[in-house]
Records
---
Amino acid sequence: MLQTLGSVLDSVNKYTTYPYYNSDFQSFLHRDYRTERGLLDITTDTRLYKRYVHEQILRYNSKISTAVLFNTTSDTRFVGGYYPDEDVMRALDRTMSRLQDANAADGTTVTFQGLDRYRATYIASARPIFDPADRRYLGYFCLIINAQELNETFRHQRQNGVRRYILDQNMKIVYDSGGERIGLTADGPLAAFAAMETDYKQQMLDGQHMALLKSVSEPTGWRVVTFVNSDLLFEDVRKRQQNLTLILMAMLLAAIGAAIWFAVSISRPINRLRHVIASNVEKRFRTLVPVTSNDEVGDLAHSFNQMQEEMKQLLSQVVAQERAKRTAEIHALQAQINPHFLYNTLNTIKWMANMQCADNIGEATASLIYMLRYASSMQGDLVTIRDELQFVEKYLSLMQLRYCDRFDVRFDIEEEALDGLSLRFLLQPFVENAIFHGFQGNEAANLLTIGARVDRQDLILTVEDNGVGMTDRQLMHIQADDLHREGFNSIGIRNVMERIKLHYDDRYGVVLSSGPMRGTRVVINLPMETNKAGR
């Protein structure tokens, strides 16, 4: 509507420039009709003016009903068009007084009401005319449209439940789709909403939910305001929602039916297969499931038959393993007789040595008894550092008796590290190699240092000697698990390294450093764990 209204007003406004292009209209504005000659010419000029209006303006724009040319020099008005009315002219004179201002040189559009009893509303597009030579005001040219013409223009846009208004810049109602309020000043909700800056609002009017919409013409400041019943506005949306809901329900019911049929077609043969399998379990897998189809259920039956054959073989293997296990337990029970006999014999030797005052023999026998018990009590892979150090101490006491105290031992143990856990027999292989090979041929004072400390979340164990050390080649062979040095305890060290790799991840392990006549240092890095003994 706003675009249509703008097109209508722009078209009319362009015709207001017609006096500038018509020499006769220029002469009408310059002539003084108060003279005797003017009084003789006015009848001829009026007839010529009306012909120009009909042929050049009204013929090409059916919306224009009246054209008025006003000569201010002699206060003369030329009126052409359809049904000119003196009441309309008097009302127009009141409205056109503001065109005297030169700021309206580009023309203006105003609305006014006639003074007759019908009080019809008119739209006037007027332009003041100035002398091109000296810019002297000569008069104005005004084209008038009856507001009722807009009803025909917007007749196709009428809808039930929709009320449209066109308001001019002074809030006068120029167009009313109901035809009841044309010419009146907007009031109530219409005026309130037209004055707002917002273009959309919802409001209750006469007990109905109404949607209020507004568009504003930038050139004229006129407003198009529409009141729409919200129920009507969203009627198509509701119908589409209802249709969509029905379609979705039909699709859902069809999907449910298809799902039930599909589920039954699958579950029926599966249930038959389940019953057959249950009966076969009671018969200890002695009966094969009959394969009656080539579909997925047939594949399941075939796979079950294969599984049944494999389970028969596994059951036979389990029976054989259980028999072998019982035989091994009997052998293990018999083997326990020998360690107990050895413990008792060593205890007898220890008491005989004590009775004969052979204290060294008694201490050595006691240490050997402790080591045998520690080695034979295999209750879990992990032991505390405290227990591991006691085992190493017993081993060192035997070695010091053997080598007549040729080396000294120093322990550098943190109290916190004693509760840490490590694998069994982790230190003994490195201590043994330090004694047998590190101190061999070393004339200096032999010192063996054993350490244990906690570094954040790690447990660090060290075995260090000041013996003859190793060459880089020997060290490389050791770190590459190529331990073939004659007499070297390769089995024990390889065992320690492999056990650490198997039990922990790659962050932990053993690091060796050595040099000729510089001793050897072994660093064992483990995670700091507690309260898991016997795991």
---
Amino acid sequence: MEVGEEFGPWLSRQLKLAGKTQAELADELNLTRAAVSAWITKRSVPRPTVMGEIAKALGTDLGTVHTRTTDTQAGLPITWYHRPGYQDGGRDGGNAAAFAFDADVQVLARETCQNSLDERLVENGRPVRVRYTIHELTGEKLDAFRAAVLWDELQPHYSAVSESAADQKVGRVVDAGVRDMFEKGRLILLRIDDYNASGLTGDDYGDGKFAAVVRRQLESLKSGRGAGGSYGLGKATLWATSALGMVLINSTLSVPHEGRTERRVIGRLELPWRSVDGNSYAGPAWLGRPDPETPGAEVVRSWWADEEMVKRLHLTRDGDEPGTSFLIVGAHDVASLEQGKADSADEDENESDDDGTRDIRAMHRRLVDALSRDFWAAMTGGGSKLPLLETSVRTLSNGEVVIKEEKVDPTDTQPSRTRALRAFYEGSTVDRLTESGQVALRTVPLRLPLSGGRRGTFGTHPGVLLVTEAEDKDGVPNQVHSLRGNRMTIKKSGVSGLPLGVNSFQAVLLVGHAAGQSALFAEEAEEFLRAAEPPEHDRWGQTEELTLRWSHSAHHRIARLTTEVNAAVKELVVRPKRPGSQESAKLRKKLTVQRKSAASKRASGPALPVLDELNAEIGENREWRITAEVKLPRADELPAMTPVALVDVRSGSGPRLDWAELVAMEGCEIQDGVLHFTPNARRAVFRGATDPTSHPVRTELTRLALELRAGSGSEA
């Protein structure tokens, strides 16, 4: 049961909400102002007989005064406050932070789950529990929800945005969201609840987590130094995923605010600049109770809602465990909609009837996939190490279950990687892989640079590399998943230079706190790698923060770590070559590395990069996926080269295949499909995937040839 607020602070706030002074209340009660002041300052409390008179003066019931678990209804009503337009005439076409991410529920899952991990209450040792609820509303349920969010107040603002939608990307998205709701008679809500988290603590306006999320942009106030986020951008994915730009929030606090912890509610709306009834509005708006301490009581603040209100807003939480619920109103997922269209094209005509749930079913599936892919390590425990995270997804329609709650189990989707991590926690790793199911461990050095641009090494952090046999459920084989303290997968990469015929494997790189709290320089490695992550937190490389705090070349330390990892993996998985191996000969028949003969080289010509090693496989979409290594000659300047994929034929030049992806791995950069090599590098590695739509025949029936052509390589 919720504990009531102390009488003095509660009464002080109720007087402000009601617009009463202490003197006015004293007059109504026929008491002295000193008596009321004593209550406010907590020097005394009113007698039970006076409580009823106080309730009458505040326009509430006696129970509310006694329990003090909610505000009275005597104050100003809940309403929307729209930020006025800028006095200098400036206009914003939307929240720029939202453009850092796509309207994709998988991106949303990555960012929101990371935030929940960062806010986990660590003292009790329990994981943070995050639940995603997809809820489609239609008919009377939709009408009731629109009434709860005061849609009639918002309608003029949405109409103004729709009128100017042709000039604004955000306006076009919002206009489409409104039309979808009214023309199709439906609205999709996506709620993210976390439990055993800190909640949005702090004042409405001061420095604190509440203001950082609800009031501000580009501000990150995370609980620990090992937190995943650092830019303050992740929260923008909530509003980016809403076609209506609306998010409602209900937080249960780990630290009381105004003596309360439960049902702290507020809403935020993100719209572009608009003009309504001759008044201009800057963009954002907030749903809350007018704050009597602001000029004209126009600005709204969070309020302590009752149980009926949070139920009407679809924000009811399970129990009183600290954490926050975010309700995305009008959730849309462009990627899942496109996937749904592709799926429906493959369905049998007899199964093509849409029961109205295909979109939410696709969103459900994509959320589960994203959580298992990015957070498998955080959900894995072993030995004395407990999981940091539990996640689940459920899907409803008008309160009825469409897909029952599905708890994400990383052992189902990532069996090899979870096996590797569990073996590390349990201390059951081996030095060399000799049997199926074993996990080999190697330490790899991350040499941390001195800060401030100084030359030298601060210290060497021993990262932990785990390698084990791959299973079919793991997805793409021969991958290294890299993670640090929050145990979210940061970087996924292949291993360059693997020979054909190598046993399929999966590898995990643990650095920073993930390598163990006792690992040397774990704290410094955590800080260094966190600074090397972009807002998406999906790789390590050169960033502005890394350059400012360390140097412009600090990212080379990460490249060297990658080289050490690749070398260690090869040592563990590459089998010694056996002369005349039939298996190797069979696999080599599928690949051709095109080289000019020695006789055709001009003796006086400049040295050119040479394609030295090629590894390829056929991907899930029947594309060729290659990893190529280029040997670089010693030269002050090397020409740019274009990788060209061809279907190998007996004579002449075979049909050229288009690239769907080209990614530089080491010793090079790729610009418009052309390789530019790093000065003084002795080798370069790049990855690529062909576009299967450019294949003239089935991939399985062809052989792949790869050439390096000088210049743009545009000639046929």
---
Amino acid sequence: MDAEVKQSKGRKITSRLAYSFGAFGHDAFYATLSTYFIMFVTSHLFDKSSGAQGTKMIAYITMIIAVLRFVELAIDPLIGNAIDNTNSRWGHFKPWIVIGGTIGSVVLALLFTSLGGLNTSNPILYLIVFAILYITMDIFYSFKDVGFWSMIPAISFDSAEREKTATYARVGSNIGQNIVGVVVMPIVLMFSTKANSGQGDNRGWMAFGIIIAAVALISAFAVAIGTKENDSELRKNTEKTTFKEVFKVLARNDQLMWLSLTYGIYTAGMAITNSLELYYFTYILGDASKFTLLGSLNAIIGVFAVLAFPPLVKKFSRRKVFFLAISVMVIALAMFAFAGQSLPMILTAAVLFYIPQPLIFLVVLMVLSDSVEYGQLKFGHRDESLTLSVRPLLDKLGGAISNGVVGLTAVWAGMTAGATAGDVTSHGQAIFKLMMLGVPAVMILTGAFIFFKKVKLDEKMHAQIVDELEKTWSKHLETDETPAEIETNSEVTIYHSPVAGKLISLDEVADKTFASGSMGKGFAIQPTDGRVLAPFDGEVVATFPTRHAIGLRSDQGILTLIHIGIGTVNMRGTGFVQYVEEGDHVKQGEELIEFWQPAIKKAGLDDTVMVVITNKEMPEFEYLKDMGNLVQDNENVLKLSNAKLSD
């Protein structure tokens, strides 16, 4: 038995590490594509001898990149649909992670070359081949991207294991994204035949592209080999996602729409500044090798920024963290404007600009996730997959805008075709700073203003929404397996007290919804103990992120909701420990939840436990204890006849 436990633990660790390495390679690839590839195109694909023709080609290439990335946005939902409908011996996701990783990596390496000199010998043919290669690479990258990040629920059905896997992945992702900035110039200079004032040459950039492509490819195979998809009926998809449906969800969910507009404008501005930082080191500071220092600082700080998010949100709130982060970013842009060639000031400004980015990303991700329940309550339909597909769409939209702006900025500022810091005029520097600092500042502030005025979905509002949804939790079970279809040898269910305490009538509780009987019939208990036990043998059919309520179905088909406290949804899980997960089969008397009564009292809330039967066809009730009596947990309190239960 010990050997099996050790083997299982070993598999989990292997899976986490493999997935984390996959995130490392995946984000190293994305950082290279979104930030450093455009630097190669504008500064190294052509040399000074190409003159006006080279400048014109750079403009064409950057326009092609921007247009193709917009086109690729329309393809993303089809990609997701294709992955959902993939059935192979290796699962839904692994085939696309490997295929996307292989093709994407090979094409990325090719794009970091002049395609055999075709860029100058036959410019038109180069542009055609470039467009074909780029859209191919982008599409297969998307296959890998969607497949990779959709894989977490398939790796494990255990929530705790999912959280650990996701944490490993976030760390790997952060390091992969920032390590590229650390190694880019050392690799370029190591393999360059000409130092070119510290910028390297196209041979060094080709080597850089090949190395990043190889890392991304190896990491894709590591995910395929080191992880295992766990199949289940729960993962069978019956809905198809289309581009039209994504915008339908956006249009009807106002909080999602305003958040999307906020994030779309913000992320485009943020991406422009991030992408132009290497240009600053190269053409303003005049020493591209110092960019490695910034990459190293960001790689370290990024991990701490992610870890700082939970305590910051707990101490303040998401909205306050969001606006604090925006303020720091604007201050950083102002510092950049006056940094000149002072390396300490440049690094300080760049680091201050980066620190808030993980915090804003997480705030947006949390609000985006909360908008699922907002839409569910408002429209009666849970558009989870559609809603969560919005963020990657907006990231790509921001990347498309950024690539176009960065390419045109390099052309306008004269930072192309082998130019050095000495070649850039004061007019060119002014244009560059306007595009790197001024335009993003306006975009970031515009996004923040929209967030302030229109995005109202905070933790308190979400808690209220969840509370409302919890009161309708059993409706989705009406089409599930009915008691008539369940094999049972008994027509009577004895309902044991789930909590020790004083038995009171349900109509006496302070929560009007429960007291009115609209939730169902039952009873309430003023608890003397903080343990919640299973009142019968059955299945856990509903759990809630706030852990203060649980839904069960008995083996005879009795549906029950046990709700701890009134208004305790606002505690967001603090003071509650849940020992079971949805889908678990439990025995009568098994501990389900433990709650800390002092925490509820400290929050100024009522700790009364409401217990209701929620079947559409209500069974016959016979109370075995009088109201006002003290009961122990596991004590018989109710006899339910199953005779009236029907389809």
